[in-house]
Amino acid sequence: MKIISSPKEMKAFSASARAEGKKIALVPTMGALHHGHLSLIKLAREKADVVVVSIFVNPTQFGPNEDFDKYPRQLEADINNCRECGADAVFTPSVSDIYAPDASTYVVEEQISKELCGKSRPKHFRGVTTVVTILFNIVKPDIAVFGEKDAQQISIIERMVRDLFMDVEIVRAPIVRDENGLALSSRNKYMDKLERIGAARIHRALEATKKMVEEENCRNVDRVKAFVINNIANAKARVIYAEVVDAKTSLPVSELDPGKCRVSVAVWYGQTRLIDNILI
Ligand code: PAF
Q1: How far is the CA of 215 from the centre of ligand 1 (A)?
Q2: Which residues of the chain have pLDDT under 70?
Q3: Which domain holds residue 201?
Q4: 128 C-alpha vs ligand 1 centroid, how far in Å?
Q5: SS3 (DSSP) at 68
Q6: What pLDDT is stored for residue 99 in this prediction?
Q7: What is the residue-averaged pLDDT of the chain?
Q8: Separation in Å, CA 157 to CA 51, 60, 91, 113
Q9: How far, in Å, from the CA of 29 to the mean position of ligand 1?
Q10: CA proximity to 154, closest of 113, 182, 120
């Protein structure tokens, strides 16, 4: 497995794979890899000849008071995990490799980005779409794999790819959960074991909501939101938002259409911001 930090070298690696007629998959990550990420790498392995994992903690998607500095970094362990999952290359650029000191160009999706997480993290998705475009331009993948825990992020990337005629297929991979149901996230490292057990309540609340919708044949979005909020709330959990959205676009809906919707939530659990969702 190659470890590449320079964009120029990464471009050359991809160009030579393409020249041999190989299909390239990119798994973009910010590192601190967990089993959720590893499932993305394994899926990429099944779908392509060459798998590239990027590890880059992207400063432009963090707000001024967010956790860029303390975001978990464990490059050596990440590289070993990528190797074990059969990746062909790990791309680990530095911030100055990706952004010129006077970089002033951004890619902005202007509809979906304004909803859900976009309301409390106003420039977050601008940073995501910009860095994902940069990574696509460097790696030039045929496919890119993203996890559905970040369902809104995938919807925004799919919209960007469609709107800008980008030649890459976006592959969605299912959420991976721990033994208690907590969706795996690099930010789970901020919590101790007891907190992680407590935070699994978020998933249980989503499951209970799905059951209620099915049993009561409920279509009322306000009822669904109130139900999930009531089920999550406890001393440690503060709901940032709970929304019923279209499963594909992540845009809020006014009536629940079974099989085509998702209930998405963001929660402060103690000092940790968590997101999760369920298809309904
Ligand atoms: O989902 C993430 O880890 C990040 O938002 C991504 C897609 C790697 C962009 O930095």
Answers
A1: 36
A2: none
A3: 186-279
A4: 6
A5: coil
A6: 98
A7: 97
A8: 19, 16, 20, 10
A9: 5
A10: 113
Backbone angles phi, psi at 10, to 5 degrees: -65, -45
Do 155 and 218 share a structural domain? no
Cα(11)–Cα(7) distance, rounded to whole angstroms? Answer: 6
Looking at residue 208, its pLDDT comes to 97
Which residue minimizes the CA distance to atom 3 of ligand 1? 29
Minimum CA distance residue for ligand 1 atom 6? 29
Pocket residue to mutate for ligand 1, from 27, 30, 60, 149, most atoms within 8 A of Cβ: 30
Q: Do residues 106 and 49 share a domain? A: yes
What total number of domains does the chain contain? 2
Q: Are residues 130 and 26 in the same domain?
A: yes
The residue with tokens 């190989």 is: 22
248 domain-assigned = yes
37 has catalytic annotation = yes
**CA-nearest residue, atom 2 of ligand 1:** 29
How many whole angstroms from 186 Cα to the centroid of ligand 1? Answer: 11
Is the residue at 231 inside a domain?
Answer: yes
Catalytic-role residue among 35, 37, 124, 203: 37
Residues near ligand 1 (Cβ within 6 A): 28-30, 58, 61, 128, 131-132, 150, 153
Q: What is the 3-state secondary structure (H, E, C) of 157-192?
A: HHHHHHHCCCCCEEEEECCCECCCCCECCHHHHHCC
pTM: 0.98
pLDDT of residue 112: 98
